[in-house]
Amino acid sequence: MSIETLSGQSEKAYALLQEDAQKILKLIEVQMTNLTMPQCPLYEEVLDTQMFGLSREIDFAIRLKLIQEEDGKELLGQLERQLSTLHEATLRKK
Fold this sequence. Notes:
This protein has helices at residues 3-35, 41-63, 69-93. The protein is mainly alpha-helical.
């Protein structure tokens, strides 16, 4: 496999992981806005399940050497910060 092919696959893998992170953010945003409070066990269950799934995807991509471990950690950290900001904003509204 050429370096160019590997680089392209790495970029595609990271872009897909970013898309999945944004889907989680949107799912939680919709849930918080329309369905449940952040203290609800259902909210926590969905969030935990989604975050676990994304972390497994990231671990898999790291093991395949499609992304760097630091990039995967940063992606998870960024999503966690966005979710925290969303959570705080929702609590202030209610």
